[in-house]
Amino acid sequence: MIPDRDRFHVTLTSVGRPTMHGWWAVESTARGKFTEWIGLSKGPNARVTLVDEEIGAVLTTWSDDE
């Protein structure tokens, strides 16, 4: 079976507005991007979210106010 290339969605937002986002077929790749984007989070109220679009679940989030 070919993995769904749009299954794992990572979003970086700042002040409630999306600044970056991308989709990956492999969860480990998406988790790597999630970690990388935490390092890029410079704006106020930055948040990074990883969602499994196939099952509609948030897998993890990070926020600068946590």
Order of helices and strands: EEHEE
Measured distance between first and last alpha carbons: 39 Å
Compute the CA-based radius of gyration: 12 Å
Estimated structural class: alpha+beta
Question: Strand percentage, roughly?
Answer: 35-45%
The percent range for helix content is 10-25%
Strand adjacency order, main sheet: 2-1-3-4
Multimerization status = single chain
Describe it.
With 66 residues, the protein is α+β, with helices and mostly antiparallel strands. The chain has a domain at 12-22 and 45-66. 21% of the residues lie in helices and 42% in strands. It contains one helix and four strands; from the N terminus they run ββαββ. The protein has one helix at 27-40; strands at 8-14, 17-24, 47-52, 57-63. A four-stranded antiparallel β-sheet has the order 2-1-3-4, with helices on one face. A hairpin with a 4-residue loop joins strand 3 and strand 4. The longest helix has 14 residues, at 27-40. It is elongated.
Keywords:
21% helix; 1 helix; alpha+beta
Helix-strand layout with pairing:
Blueprint: E1 8-14, E2 17-24, H1 27-40, E3 47-52, E4 57-63
Antiparallel strand pairs: 1-2, 1-3, 3-4
Give a concise summary:
By secondary structure, the chain is of the alpha+beta class. Helix content is 21%, strand content 42%. It has a four-stranded antiparallel β-sheet, covered by helices on one side.
